[in-house]
Amino acid sequence: MLQRLIRNLRDYWLPLARKLFARKVVLASAIVLALVVAVATVFPWVSDADPNAISISERLNAPSAAHWAGTDELGRDVMLRIVHGARYSLLIGGLTAAGAVLFGTLLGMFAGFFRRLDAPLMRVVDAMMSFPDILLGIALVSILGASLWNVMLALVIVYTPRVARVVRASTLVLRELLFVDAARALGVRTPRILLKHILPNLVSPILVQVTFIFAYAILAEAGLSFLGVGVPPDIPTWGTMIAGSLESADRAFWTILYPGLAIVFTALSLQMLGDGVRDLLDPKLKKAA
Q: What's 22's DSSP letter?
């Protein structure tokens, strides 16, 4: 068993990783994401510092050796809040991507495989996609209420139609292929066809959608928090940090600069990594580009 695992790693996964990281920008993006995930995961275990600890005497201090990214309007350490906020921002992005992919894949498979369900499901999807993401997110959070879990639920609803559209298009092609016709001729039941023949061939587009939606969700959460309808202010996400520092931004630019850079670099790295995965899984798109 161990020898087989090592052989698969050497013969399949290592060459795949070399192809994926052959582009320096993809490699750099993966390193940035690994650092963000490592810091967000490890730091809370090695430090018990409170990111919400207030020190009025140190409010709006510029970056220094004591506070690498300065302090905000309440004297809270900006760098400490960025590190703790990474956990929440990554949690929102990751769970949103997982939920949107799960429900979007189910909707797309059913719409693409069952002709009777195609029209009604896609009309609902079209109606949802007719609204700008941020406006639909604001409306849903306003209905559900502002909380961490409600923001994630709203973003799942917002991005599910994107995945459903992509999965439906791929399923429409797959259901007409010979191996699906052969399975039907052999009497294979529809659920087994979907799970054993259709779903494995949807992995490539789904993986690409995961990376993109992950980035979109981080940006959307920041936008909702910036507008005051996102995560409550006591939760130090990168978006709430920017929203809470607007009034003091003209006197202490670092309160917005560093959380903004965290959002930009994380989202950009996810986008670049998604482009790399897309090019690896579909070389035709790379040639066309």
A: T
Gyration radius from the chain CA atoms: 22
Distances (CA, A) of 89 to 33, 54, 83, 231, 287: 13, 22, 10, 10, 34
Helix (H) or strand (E) holding 208: helix 203-226
27, pLDDT greater than 80: yes
Of the candidates 168, 163, 170, 160, which has an alpha carbon nearest to the alpha carbon of residue 201? 170
Vertex 200 angle, CA 190 and 110, to 5°: 45
Residue 191 makes CB contacts below 8 A (sequence gap 6+) with: none
Residue type at 110 in one-letter notation: F
Angle at 30 between CA 90 and CA 3, to 5 degrees: 105
**Tens digits of per-residue pLDDT, 102-134?**
999 999 999 988 888 888 888 888 888 888 888
Any residues with CB less than 8 A from the CB of 211 and at least 6 apart, and which? 97, 270, 271, 273, 274, 277
pTM over 0.70: yes
Contacts of 104 (CB under 8 A, 6+ apart): 159, 160, 161, 162, 163, 164, 166, 167, 209
User: Which residues 6+ apart lie within 8 Å of 19 measured at CB?
Assistant: 280
d(CA 225, CA 134): 11
